[in-house]
Amino acid sequence: MITNSLPRAVHPRSMARLLLSVPIAYVGTAALLAFAYVTRPALVSPVLLLLIVRQAAPLAIAVLGQSLCMRVLSLDLSIGGVILAVSYILTSGILRFPEYC
Description:
The protein is mainly alpha-helical. Helices cover 64% and strands 0% of the residues. The chain has four helices and no strands. It has helices at residues 12-20, 24-39, 46-71, 79-92. The chain is flat and about 55 Å long. The mean pLDDT is 79.
């Protein structure tokens, strides 16, 4: 038995279905990054992208924690205080981070 190992051409309908299955948050993020690159290319530099990731990390951890609480049908109201404390510690200068510039 001989099998054809050549890749098949992608059908346009399957490609459209694949593009429509991408979450809207990913599409929005890609659109914002493309818009930032077109209007101000310096905003998409690695240094600024790392700064944005560093500032968004505490919120992402809080979102993961809240989604875990909601998954077990509970609600944690103390997350506001934790976010406030983490934001204050990161922005007040208590912790020293190396300068990238």
